[in-house]
Design a protein that fits this description.
With 295 residues, the chain is of the alpha/beta class. Helices cover 34% and strands 17% of the residues. The chain has one domain (25-293): Thiamin diphosphate (ThDP)-binding fold, Pyr/PP domains (Rossmann fold, 3-Layer(aba) Sandwich). The protein has helices spanning 25-42, 62-65, 81-91, 103-109, 114-120, 165-172, 185-197, 217-221, 244-252, 270-280, 286-293, and strands spanning 50-54, 72-75, 96-102, 125-130, 133-134, 140-141, 176-181, 202-207, 232-234, 256-263. Bound molecules: thiamine diphosphate, iron/sulfur cluster and magnesium ion.
């Protein structure tokens, strides 16, 4: 856990982990730093109003590599960023809670938490770095590895299909879904600010290639010289994120859309429902309680 008081103005000095050269997570880190600073300046809110909840993986290590003025942070248990975020919001609803995690952490071991938090509409923003592998543990297959992909855990090719995370989020009821690319940190920072501003469960799902075990930079961006078209395509200006059908169409269009895919215009976060409930729910008096036991 990083501390704020008396405190580090630079990344965690006690943590010697390093990302490999060219890792996509560098771009995501830059975007998160820019987004948090922009929010802090715009809202005149101290950086310590933010808590970063990190998953276990190369991606979650972003918490320790964050540069500049430090937010709070918690690096807990593999796959449990959402329950930790729920706990923080239950006791300190005013805090800005940001998750940083990988495709393995969030969609595999942590996958069971997405539907309940989407239904609660937990007011947090999850920044998910998808490299299609378990990077930290040396390249095993993850839920987003393609069918047939050879990895250290699937040497003859993966026999499971791959999850479409954007489709999963939309079906689960996530109220803000953005899709980004680590190679475009400026655009990514804007999506993260929008995600943090959203009242409810926001996910910014990012293609963040692992140069060591699954280097997809060329496949994502394309290369005219080799005739590779590139899987990424940018949502047109007339894409209406409040239109769920349009979001569905974009997600099912070939390739990977980049931009704000979906934002529920009627999003009501869990905290608001809880406050409304507190207004209605009255504690019974002692007499009323005793009356319940009368025969
Ligand atoms: C309960 C538990 N199971 C397994 C592990 C081993 N483990 C550490 S990170 C990781 C996967 C990380 O993959 P991902 O979330 O995609 O992060 P990346 O390293 O690719 O950024 C696994 C399986 C663990 N730390 N704890
Ligand atoms: S193993 Fe992959 S994800 Fe991990 S730091 Fe290296 S390039 Fe990045
Ligand atoms: Mg991964």
């Amino acid at each position: 856990m990083t501390t704020a008081k008396g405190a580090p103005k630079v990344k965690n000095p006690e943590y010697d982990f390093k990302w490999c050269p060219g890792c996509g997570d560098f771009g995501v880190r830059r975007a998160v730093e820019v987004a948090l600073r922009e929010r802090s300046i715009r809202d005149e809110a101290p950086m310590t109003e933010t808590v970063i909840v990190a998953g276990i993986g190369c991606s979650g290590n972003l918490l320790h590599l964050f540069e500049g003025e430090q937010p709070f942070g918690i690096h807990g248990v593999h796959g449990r960023t959402l329950p930790q975020a729920l706990g923080i919001k239950m006791v300190r609803p005013e805090l800005n809670v940001l998750i940083v995690a990988g495709d393995g952490d969030f969609l595999s071991i942590g996958g069971e938490h997405i539907v309940p938090q989407a239904q609660r509409n937990l007011d947090i923003c999850a920044v998910i770095m998808d490299n299609g592998v378990y990077g930290l543990t040396k390249g095993q297959s993850s839920p987003t590895s393609e069918l047939g992909m050879k990895t250290s855990s699937t040497p003859y090719g993966k026999i499971e299909g791959s999850v479409n995370p954007l489709d999963l989020y939309l079906t689960s009821g996530v109220s803000f879904i953005a899709s980004g690319f680590s190679g475009k940190p400026k655009e990514l920072a804007k999506l993260i600010v929008q995600g943090m501003d959203h009242k409810g469960f926001a996910i910014v799902h990012i293609q963040s290639p692992c140069t060591e075990y699954n280097d997809t930079f060329e496949l994502l961006k394309g290369n005219p010289k080799t005739g590779i078209k590139g899987a990424l395509w940018y949502l047109p200006e007339d894409h209406d994120p409040s239109d769920r059908d349009a979001a569905y169409q974009a997600i099912h269009h070939p390739g990977i859309p980049v931009g704000l895919v979906y934002q529920d215009p009627d999003s009501v976060p869990m905290q608001q429902r809880q406050d409304e409930l507190k207004e209605r729910a009255k504690s019974p008096t002692v007499d009323e309680l005793m009356d319940n036991f009368s025969v």
